[in-house]
Amino acid sequence: MNSIAFLECQIKSIDLLKLNVALPINLTVKCLQNVKQLILVNQSNGSLNLQFEDLSIPYPDTNFSMQFYSFSNYLTREAYSQWPQLFNIQRCDIIAVFNSAHIDNEEQMLTQNYPKSKLELTYLKFDDSSTYFRQYEQHDQPKISKVILHYYYGDLNFKGQIQTSKLYIQQKTQQNKELKIATLSKFKSAEEIELHYDNNMDVYQSASKCECSKSIRLFNDSQYDNDRIIMKIMNGFCKFENVQEFGYYKKNITHQSPSELIELNQKLSQFKNIELLTLPMPTDENFAQSLFFLLRSLKKLVQLRLQENLYQRSSQDIVQEVSQFAIDNLQELRKLEFELQKPIEIQENIMKNRAQPLTITVWINHQTICIIDNRFGLRKSPIELYHKIS
After folding, report:
1. Model's pTM, two decimal places?
2. Judging by DSSP bridges, how do beta strands 245-249 and 215-220 pair with one another?
3. What is the DSSP letter of 154?
4. C-alpha–C-alpha distance, residues 388 and 390, integer Å
5. Which among 247, 297, 300, 320 could disulfide-bond with 217, CB atoms 3.0 to 4.6 Å apart, if both were Cys?
């Protein structure tokens, strides 16, 4: 099959180029030099028609990765046979999806056969009888950059620990009702932990805790008030000093009780190294005061974002109160952001006594409606004027 040269169309730089390896396209040297990230999609029933002009020369500014769906070692062997320099010279990352972790040493073969490739392995189901997991009792960590848990399962009983850069956990169906901290404790994520949950989840504590990563993001996807769960999750973590970014997201609920969120603020005061923080908007004065107590304890905080829930009443007063508190007390804070449902007014001279740099931004539906910067004054966007006229 004749291949077609990929035309850059006068684009000098491409951040991301994603291509199916079955396409009859020839990637030239010039093209690869202009691409920052190249993702090659390898499907189970596809042919390998993609061609490269020259893979023997280094492309230091290009990151190569190959994405496998319904992974099998046959596909990787076939890809290696077609483009050996892609893996040996370009160090192509391997992104693989496994329907189950109970696969006879396929993951172990990956690390042995492609020692120069970074692995991003997605597990849709775990089975602790997997010989791959049991090898951790004798050997060092695998070369894994991401683990995705789509199901909550029972305890993983092997003695070792799965070390990864990112851990993503999602409650996939209404039948998933259990989150066992003993299971989470088997994963050590250096960079990021992201957990999504709904109101039908039960959390089971354990003497073994999950070590905190640099970033923890918890998403309450329920439309109902179930903040009782958040503290059960928080009590499953240890080594709070690891956390530099924390986010708790619950924008879609119809109402909220602040008592558990006040308890969350008290817990977060132990996370002394937080620099970036995202939390729900306070709904009453007690909630606001607990937030101020937390903010006083976070000496390294540089960015704070507060999110109004879907049915929260106007936050005009609380935005003014939080802004004034930050201006007067948080000298290291550089960004204060509010995600709201409706426009509000902020005093233009609110930062007249602020010496340190600070930017206050108000968002509605991911659009900026107002920015106050003590170096440049007040700026408003057209969307706010539209709301005023209508």
Report:
1. 0.76
2. parallel
3. S
4. 6
5. 247
Residues 113/119, Cβ–Cβ less than 8 Å: no
Strands (DSSP E) along 43-158, which ranges? 51-52, 63-68, 93-98, 119-123, 146-149
Q: What is the mean pLDDT of the chain?
A: 81
Handedness of CA 294, 296, 300, 306 (dihedral sign): positive
CB 96 within 8 A of CB 69: no
Rounded Cα gap, residues 234 and 323, in angstroms: 27
Sign of the C-alpha dihedral computed for residues 45, 51, 56 and 62 taken in this order:
negative
8 Å CB contact between 216 and 243: yes
Q: Which two tokens stand for residue 5?
A: 């040269």
pLDDT at position 142 is: 47
The pLDDT-based confidence of 266 (bands split at 50, 70, 90) is very high
Distance CA(321)–CA(382), nearest Å, equals: 25
* pLDDT for position 307: 92
The residue that leads in pLDDT, 150 or 385, is 150
* Planar angle of CA 203, 205, 209, nearest 5 degrees: 115
**CA distances in angstroms from 301 to 64, 160, 292, listed in the order given:** 36, 35, 13
